[in-house]
Design brief:
The protein has helices spanning about 10-20, 30-40, 40-55, 75-100, 110, 120-130, 135-145, 165-175, 175-195, 215-230, 255-265, 275-280; strands at about 30, 60-65, 70-75, 150-165, 200-205, 205-210, 235-250, 250-255, 270-275, 290-295, 305-310. It is of the alpha+beta class. The chain is globular.
Length: about 300
Amino acid sequence: MEQPDPVIHQPLRLKIMAALKGLPRGERLEFVRLRAVLNATEGNLGAHLGTLEKAGYIKVEKDFNGRRPRTRISLTGTGVHAYADYAAYLRAKFPDWIEQNWGTAISAEILEPSRAPVLEFRRSLARIERLGASPASMIALIRINHQVDDPGRVLATVLFTDIVESTRQAATLGDRAWRQVLDRHELVAKQEIARFRGRAVKSLGDGLLATFDGPARAVRCAAAIGERVRPLGIELRSGLHTGEIELRGDDVAGIAVHIAARVAETADSGEVVVSSTVRDLVAGSGLVFEDCGSRALRGLPEPLRLYRAAA
């Protein structure tokens, strides 16, 4: 491939392809979920899906879920090969591009090709390149990264749980009794996560992190864990967000994980709080939410609208 595929070589279309590539084989992604994850307007996303469908890279299917119309998208075999060729092209071309053009805003062609012709944008990006690293340093970094597997990226609903006033309870019960409570809590939580077809990622001492491929099941799981641990004399607060995450061995990372953690921090005792993304994705599931308003979350540049799952 002498030039990047012009169909994929556009920021939103590249994100669409990456999101679909992260799905398990044979699965399709609902339009509403894709729009929420990519934070794209309906019209803009629809136009780019049309371009990808015309190229034969994706398949768009319209049907009904009960009485509710839905649109689902998946990669075609042609799309899988096109995405692989595009990734291979970038891996092959990056070292040469950097050696010859680093410091002249060469990264604009990858990061924001639609803004690449804008002079002020190119000047700013060129300065960032020159201050960030030398061409040799960037080439070495890329070669190191290519020697390891790229982390898988998938769409998931992330759940954080936290035991309310755990420090006070530990001091009251003593180390041994508190350890027994924590062990029982972890066992119960993992049982519920398995029942709702999620994955327990890791224990956080007085809480845990889990992921799900279905947001409605994630919300119901959070509520079920809270109910089951109540006889142990503890209350949980839980937070959920849906977005793209990175799979790093048995762990997960990415902005969606951080957002879910911050959402959990806003919950009060016994509450399950979700982001607007989760609330939008579970429409029609029968779950009921109360609007908590927009909240400024630690480390995030903009407020996020949150909702509390009704009991």
